[in-house]
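Sequence only, no structure available. Ideas?
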Amino acid sequence: MSELHLMNQRYLKYIVYLLAIYVLGWGFTDYREIFLGLITGTCFSLFNLWTMVRKQKQFEKAYQEGKSIRSMGMLSRMAAAGLAVLIAMRYPEYINLISVVIGLMTIYVVIMIDFLIQHIRD
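Reply:
I predicted one. C-alpha cells follow.
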C-alpha cells in the first residue's frame, strides 16, 4: 500500500472519530448550533481531503506518464468551503458560522498532529 493511501486511511479514521464526538455533543448538550456547525464544516473538510488525495493520485499518474496536469483542484476546494459558509449563513438559527469555519480547518489540524505523531515515532 502506498504511503499516501495509508495517510489517507489514518486521517479518515481520525475525522470519523471527531465526527462521532461532535454528533454526541449535538445530541446530548445544549450547544446544538455549535456542534452542527462543527459537523458541517468537518464534513466539507473531509470532502476537501478526498478531493486533494484524488488530485494527488492524478498528478502522480500524469508525472509517471510524462504528461502535465491542469490544476490540483484548489478552486473546487474553495467552492466547497464557500458552499459550507453559504449553508451556515442561510440557516444561522441552526448552524453556527464560526463553528463551520473551525470545522473546515479540522483536516489541516489533523494532518499536522498526525505528522508530529509519525515524526516522534520515527
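The two ends are 19 Å apart (CA to CA).
Hope that gets you unstuck.
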